[in-house]
Specification:
alpha+beta; 7 helices; about 15% helix
């Protein structure tokens, strides 16, 4: 069955169509970061590798889905598209249903009210570390953790950078936008220099900035990390996969969604002015949300995190993920 929406490079159509995705990292950049030949080649590439690993064909996407943009941290500012009229219908009943098993926090109540647009499916890129392209961190003891700044196992190397805590609020659109309690999220991103553990030269034996969390009663997962860097061809982002349960996440099981979080322009500019982010400061101005080969078709409006904080004190980020 053809996948109807291919977001990785702005191409729309059946995945049965012959298509060569864009590859923004086709040469060594000025920072000496050698590109992976498959970096961000698109959803078509990632689906083919994911399907080869998950041979039961259990991967399914949201096909043209998007996520409602809202704050996931109390007190954060919100910038969201208007909630469709169809979404407003039944909001009260959905809230009642959700809060019967979860604490009615302002964050959760707001997320449910703005639920209705599902998360866009995106490329996992060539550095997922989930077994679909080389190494598999998901089956390693220690991957289930909240703080992902350090490697675990044979190394304890810590990734340095501006502190970042990010929270995803998972909602089940098919069942009245109730929280997806018990679902699991695998999140990963590059370091301050734009490099990925497990793949980039010198980092093959590291697994920092990767981890799995189980969603609580509010459907939320929170990770403590660092602010990722900017590399050529991509807007600063965080990858994530949503699994039906923790057991699926740690055994390469059913994937509910694969997407990315876009970080805000203001936060990126402030962080990249800090010492240690020199390469990001050079790379960041060269790509916009509109020119990014993942977020470019809609400017990342449904994946743009709500962010608060500062480069000196650290940032918090939040995103609603409707599935």
């Amino acid at each position: 069955m053809p996948y109807a929406r291919h977001r990785a490079d702005g191409f729309y159509g059946s995945m049965t169509t012959s298509h060569t995705p864009k590859d923004p990292r086709t040469s060594i950049d000025q920072d000496g970061h050698k590109p992976h030949p498959n970096h961000d080649r698109g959803l078509e590439f990632d689906l083919s590798t994911l399907m080869s690993r998950r041979s039961l064909g259990m991967f399914f996407g949201a096909g043209g889905a998007a996520v409602a943009l809202a704050a996931c941290t109390p007190g954060g500012s919100t910038s969201t598209p208007s909630t469709p009229a169809s979404t407003a219908t039944g909001t009260a009943s959905a809230t009642t249903s959700a809060t019967s098993s979860a604490t009615a926090t302002p964050t959760l109540t707001r997320a449910i009210a703005e639920c209705g647009v599902e998360i866009p499916e995106e490329t996992a890129g060539p550095y997922p570390g989930d077994g679909s392209n080389g190494p598999n961190v998901l089956e390693a003891s220690g991957v289930v953790r909240q703080d992902i700044t350090s490697s675990f196992g044979t190394s304890t190397t810590k990734a340095e950078g501006v502190p970042l805590t990010f929270t995803l609020t998972l909602l089940d659109n098919a069942n009245g936008c109730v929280p997806l309690a018990g679902a699991a999220v695998y999140a990963w991103h590059c370091d301050k220099d734009g490099k990925y553990s497990m793949y980039d030269s010198g980092l093959e034996n590291e697994n920092f900035l990767r981890g799995v969390q189980e969603a609580d009663a509010n459907g939320q997962v929170t990770f403590t990390s660092i602010f990722p860097g900017a590399y050529l061809g991509r807007w600063p982002h965080i990858h994530f996969e949503v699994f039906e349960s923790m057991s699926y996440a740690t055994s390469a099981g059913q994937v509910l969604a694969v997407s990315q979080i876009a970080l805000t322009d203001a936060a990126c500019k402030e962080v990249y002015a800090m010492a240690g982010y020199e390469s990001s400061a050079r790379n960041f101005p060269r790509t916009t949300l509109q020119s990014d080969n993942v977020f470019g078709d809609d400017g990342g409006i449904y994946q743009l995190a709500t962010m608060t904080g500062s480069a000196s004190a650290g940032y918090t980020a939040g995103l609603n993920v409707t599935i």
